[in-house]
């Protein structure tokens, strides 16, 4: 019904804002990541999604189409409604969430408000094939310090998410893994190995 609303910010609350457009104030529920960059009295453009229930109608708003798309994906998962969806988007950016899902990082996903282990597992199961791999942020998630035993698996997962085949990823990581290297270092060395091999 509404693609976006452009107007003046009249109220900023913890989980919602009010935008005035043509003398009408629209209350819009939003994530903290959307709200944090808004300023009172400033004109802004918020992408919106109308939520219709038997006893309520409300608007959810997003700073970008990317965030709105992630919200739609999240709320397509069983047990995740609009409120939990916005809570998850307050916990992490769409790109980081995509990386968590692609790398099957149940631990990180379970830290989001309203998300337990079972819901995190459903998110991975139902959304892994729907994530746009061009818009994810690997560094804050996959390229983290970790024990060498875990680093190898995370490095392979990261290379798979970047589009390399299982054989390429495993060979590169096996060649480049050394004791004392963290995940980031292994991935960088593996990428260099793959690129140098392709030039031969």
Automatic annotation (TrEMBL):
Coiled coil (UniProt feature): none
Subcellular location: Cytoplasm
Residue intervals of the Helix-hairpin-helix DNA-binding motif class domain: 72-91, 107-126
Alphabetical keyword list: Cytoplasm, DNA damage, DNA recombination, DNA repair, DNA-binding, Hydrolase
SUPFAM superfamilies: DNA helicase RuvA subunit, C-terminal domain, Nucleic acid-binding proteins, RuvA domain 2-like
GO molecular function, one term: DNA helicase activity
Domain of life according to the entry: Bacteria
Region (Domain III): 151-200
UniProt xrefs under Pfam families: HHH_5, RuvA_C, RuvA_N
SMART domains in alphabetical order: HhH1
Family stated for the protein in its record: Belongs to the RuvA family.
HAMAP family xref list: DNA_HJ_migration_RuvA
Comment text on domains: Has three domains with a flexible linker between the domains II and III and assumes an 'L' shape. Domain III is highly mobile and contacts RuvB.
Quaternary organization: Homotetramer. Forms an RuvA(8)-RuvB(12)-Holliday junction (HJ) complex. HJ DNA is sandwiched between 2 RuvA tetramers; dsDNA enters through RuvA and exits via RuvB. An RuvB hexamer assembles on each DNA strand where it exits the tetramer. Each RuvB hexamer is contacted by two RuvA subunits (via domain III) on 2 adjacent RuvB subunits; this complex drives branch migration. In the full resolvosome a probable DNA-RuvA(4)-RuvB(12)-RuvC(2) complex forms which resolves the HJ.
Role: The RuvA-RuvB-RuvC complex processes Holliday junction (HJ) DNA during genetic recombination and DNA repair, while the RuvA-RuvB complex plays an important role in the rescue of blocked DNA replication forks via replication fork reversal (RFR). RuvA specifically binds to HJ cruciform DNA, conferring on it an open structure. The RuvB hexamer acts as an ATP-dependent pump, pulling dsDNA into and through the RuvAB complex. HJ branch migration allows RuvC to scan DNA until it finds its consensus sequence, where it cleaves and resolves the cruciform DNA.
Protein name: Holliday junction branch migration complex subunit RuvA
């Amino acid at each position: 019904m509404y693609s976006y609303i452009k107007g003046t910010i009249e109220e900023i609350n913890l989980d919602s804002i009010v935008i005035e457009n043509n003398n009408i104030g629209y209350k819009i529920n939003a994530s903290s990541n959307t709200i944090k960059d808004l300023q009172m009295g400033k004109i802004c453009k918020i992408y919106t999604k109308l939520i219709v229930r038997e006893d309520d109608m409300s608007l959810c708003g997003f700073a970008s189409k990317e965030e709105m798309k992630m919200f739609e994906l999240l709320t397509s998962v069983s047990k995740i409604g609009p409120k939990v969806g916005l809570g998850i988007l307050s916990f992490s950016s769409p790109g980081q969430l995509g990386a968590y899902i692609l790398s099957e990082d149940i631990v990180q996903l379970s830290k989001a408000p309203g998300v337990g282990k079972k819901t995190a597992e459903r998110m991975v199961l139902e959304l892994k094939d729907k994530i746009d791999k061009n818009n994810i942020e690997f560094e804050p998630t996959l390229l983290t310090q970790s024990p060498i035993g875990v680093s190898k698996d995370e490095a392979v997962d990261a290379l798979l998410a970047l589009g390399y085949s299982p054989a390429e990823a495993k060979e590169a990581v096996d060649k480049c893994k050394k004791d004392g290297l963290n995940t980031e270092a292994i991935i960088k060395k593996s990428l260099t190995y793959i690129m140098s091999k392709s030039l031969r």
